[in-house]
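Lab notebook, bench 4. Still working through the backlog of constructs that have no structural model yet. Next entry is a single chain of 127 residues. Request: give me the structure tokens for it.
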Amino acid sequence: MRRFLVVALLAFICSAVYAEDDVPRATVIDGDTDRIPAETVAPKYPRDARRDRIEGEVQVCFDIDRRGGTRRIAVRHSSNRIFEKPSKKAVRRSTFKPLKEDETIQAMKTCRTFIFALEPLNESGDI
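Model written out:
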């Protein structure tokens, strides 16, 4: 249930961003993590991929530090290399809520999947 809420919230955020600047962006799906996103950045759809009608998916894994920043960003899976750079850049610009002074947590590695589709996804995730 919690994962559904996070995905629904991210889809809403992405659609709001899309409406602002009218540039297609990828859909964001977070992996399981207890850390709460503070700012989720969706990558812009690469112009060349849009022109050539290329769609794809990228899974980026990364660590979240105590301050909520992302580090050690790496592509785990990619259907097309054209989407890798904007996906890594989006993760680098995203942040999570920082831990409190007294909070302890083991090193947190998580993954985020970006779906680059020319047609917007509906609520069930279908094109």
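Notes after review: The beta strands are 27-30, 37-39, 56-64, 70-78, 95-96, 108-116. The first strand starts at residue 27 and ends at 30. Flag for follow-up if needed.
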